[in-house]
Amino acid sequence: MGSPALKMACAKMHEAGVDPVAIDNFAHYFRLLEHGETGMVPESSIEPIGMPSLADVEVDPEVGAQALRETVVIKLNGGLGTSMGMDRAKSLLCVRRGLSFLDIIARQVLHLRAAHGAPLPLIFMNSFRTSGDTMAALARYADLPVEGLPLEFLQNKEPKLRVEDLAPISWPDEPDLEWCPPGHGDIYTALRGTGLLQQLIDQGFRYAFVSNSDNLGATADPRVAGWFASSGAPFAIEAVRRTPSDRKGGHFARRKADGRIVLRESAQTLAADLPALADLDRHAFCSTNNLWFDLIAMRDALDARQGVLGLPMIRNEKTVDPGDPSTPKVIQIETAMGAAIEVFDGAALIEVGRDRFVPVKTTNDLLVLRSDVYDLGTDFVLDQSAAEVPFIDLDGEHYKLVGEFDRRFPEGAPSLKQASSLRVSGDVTFAKGVVVRGDARIAVDGATRLDEGTVLGAVVEGDTGAGA
Fold first, then answer.
1. Domain count of the chain?
2. Residue 463 has what pLDDT?
3. What secondary structure does DSSP assign to 117-139, as a single string?
4. What is the C-alpha to C-alpha distance for residues 24 and 393, in angstroms, rounded to an integer?
């Protein structure tokens, strides 16, 4: 079994009823951690990579519709939005017209089913913290479940490890904080361990489309489905060109040693390589976390490896209570689902438009999504109505948490469709009908309220007032 710390961790997982294959996966990465593995990908080991663009691909509409009929949609829905001050599933956040992420996702899928005559099952990978609220919210959609298939399966969990000796942390005051998810790379282990992977194959499905529930741009587009089915690739990821806001994020590259595509996350980048990570010309593409895989190819790969794909490890150091930096430091062993691209011969990348990548990680993103930058059509697909998506930088002291953010936009988001950027420093409340044009910056010392109809487009400083 290994070291005393590993034995303690595995025993804790067994007592909690964690799937044996998930325990085997955890043990695999624990041993790597014990032996000093960091998961780092040196710049010297990789080279830039190019790829075809979806805009240049011809897809027969019937091929796309047929591919959609063989596709299952899986949404990653394990996040609580703790960085935004939430303590329940982030997908329950209101986005547009009183609809949450979950409402819009459900309606997107129901529309696609009707438009293409596809069963298109929708299944959520929930965590033990998001399952209850999510299933309660989806109960209103009586037509959503597909006969014989669940609406959810649960992500596995693993113990947080003490930094000093890798033993599982004990936190009696709040035992739930002793556990963490193993990263979204756990999706493959969970699909296999629950039997859902084989169940989908047995019911005639061939492809899976996986994306994050906080990315409403990630719809099961028949054009992308048709491209993937026609490519013959066992695994593919949708990529977008990186922008300045992506400088600190991960990117795709090709490994020199074997020619495989790799996805290097920022947590896998050496300090000396950070300038190369930020070089948008050298590493031009990042992941949308929208991925496609052949269900049979995935089953065969998992069977051949006894359920352990062996994805690159990510060593994530945090505090046992993410909301309290004074609590003890712990290590969370994680993997990224996109890293599976290096497992498969013939894996592919496709460049897609930024409209398929609209993630909400902060309240800055939420403000854009709630604004008139996007329209929500009758198909419940986001349509970008602005010429560009503006850069938003809201003062973290006043806007980082959803509750504080909502109080400062009591009558909705300002108009941003004519904006290039909006930077807010200080405590500013926006009345109804505020309009932002071009590059706008507000810097105030005290609490300030912008009047209805205010037009922003120049620097506003002081305790009160706003100007164009």
1. 2
2. 41
3. T----EEEEE-TTTHHHHHHHHT
4. 43
Token pair 């299944």 is found at: 123
Question: Do 368 and 348 sit in the same domain of this protein?
Answer: no
Distance (Å, whole) CA 5 – CA 168: 7
pLDDT tens-place string over residues 260-314: 999 998 888 999 999 999 999 999 999 999 999 999 999 999 999 988 898 988 8
Is 301 in the same domain as 401? no
Residue range(s) defining the domain that contains residue 325: 4-356
Q: What 3-state DSSP class applies to 448?
A: strand
DSSP track, 292-356? EEEHHHHHHHHHHTTT---PPPEEEEEESSTT-TTSPEEEEEE--GGGGGGTSTT-EEEE--GGG
Give the C-alpha separation, 330 to 178, whole Å. 10
Q: What is the pLDDT of residue 465?
A: 41
Same domain, residue pair 81 and 217 = yes
303 & 171 share domain = yes
Q: Are residues 371 and 247 in the same domain?
A: no
Q: Which of 356, 377, 396 is the last residue of a domain?
A: 356
Distance CA 112, CA 381 (A): 10
Tell me the three-class secondary structure of 347-395, residue by residue: CEEEECCHHHCCECCCHHHHHHHHCCCEEECCCCCEEECCCCCCEEEEC
What is the pLDDT at residue 267? Answer: 83
Rounded mean pLDDT of 2-10?
92
Per-residue confidence band for 464, with pLDDT thresholds at 50, 70 and 90: very low
The predicted structure's pLDDT at residue 458 = 58
Which stretch of 97-111, 120-134, 238-252, 392-406 has the lowest confidence by average pLDDT? 238-252
CATH number of the domain to which 370 belongs: 2.160.10.10
Give φ, ψ of 130 to 5 degrees. -105, -10
| Domain closes at, from 316, 341, 356 | 356
User: Given the structure tokens 């529930």, which residue do they identify?
Assistant: 213
